[in-house]
Amino acid sequence: MLETLILEIQYDGTNYFGWQKQLNQKSIQEKLEKALFKLFNEELIAIGSGRTDTGVHAAGQVVSIKFENGVKYDLDIVKKALNRYLPATIKIINIAKTNKDFNARFDAVSREYLYNLNIKSDVFKQNFSAHIRYNMDIGKLKECAEFFIGKNDFTSISKFNKDTKNYNCDVLLSEWTQIDEFNFQYKVRANRFVYGMVRSIVGIMIDYARNKKTKEDIEKAFALQDRNLKSPLAPANGLILNKIYYVNNLFE
């Protein structure tokens, strides 16, 4: 009987080369698949809802794993055992299973990222918040965030990926919050994200807040689909894959 195990996981991506398994590089997928092998004694493929880059974190990455002969242990046992086999930087926070055809990546209807930014260096934030050596105008950041809402071609505002067929994304939410005098957080949700898109958006917003880019520059970047018009990418350590949305709640 075919069953799919569904995991929601958190990870600190500081010392990993992203989600996706790579030859001779430490990845989240590799660590999870090794833990699955220890428990189930079979080679299983963990499909993530999104492929986070090197140094990027997750608070709510969703993963699906198909079992041809069903999941043979109680879910609570599976969760505890996998957390015991995984390093402290990776933790399963929710678990479920289904006998329906489910794919964590292709069944997602939208994804949400957070980006943490600070203007005062703080050793306790350095892994999860990007330090920017400029004062940030929250009014300008909020103003710029609105420019990205809606359907656009993000070719100019992303990194090239040979596997990406098109760069059209529908941004549903784009907003900044000022946490305190020195800390800011950006939240963005879209039906899909292309390679480097959030860090590229944040990079443009930083330039806009510093008066290095105008609204017209951003409109031109969308229209011309030319990566020479993008700003430097914001640092990876501030980015967190926060939540994945599906038609139904997976972990009720």
Short description:
This protein is α+β, with helices and mostly antiparallel strands and 252 residues long. 22% of the residues lie in helices and 29% in strands.
* H and E string: EHEEHEEEHEEEHHE
CATH topology of the largest domain: Alpha-Beta Plaits
Largest sheet: 10 strands, mixed
Total number of helices: 5
Q: At CATH's second level, what is the architecture of the largest domain?
A: 2-Layer Sandwich
What Rg, in angstroms, do the CA atoms define? 19 Å
Which CATH first-tier class of the largest domain would you pick? Alpha Beta
Structural class: alpha+beta
Strand portion, in percent?
Answer: 25-35%
Please give the share of residues in helix.
10-25%
Distance between the termini: 23 Å
Q: How is this structure best described in words?
A:
- It is a single chain.
- By secondary structure, the protein is an alpha+beta fold.
- The chain has 2 domains: 104 residues, 2-Layer Sandwich (Alpha-Beta Plaits); 134 residues, Pseudouridine synthase I, catalytic domain, C-terminal subdomain (Alpha-Beta Plaits, 2-Layer Sandwich).
- The protein contains 5 helices and 10 strands.
- Strands 1, 2, 3, 4, 5, 6, 7, 8, 9 and 10 form a 10-stranded mixed β-sheet that branches.
- A hairpin with a 4-residue loop joins strand 8 and strand 9.
- Helix 1 packs across helix 2.
- The model has no long low-confidence stretch (mean pLDDT 95).
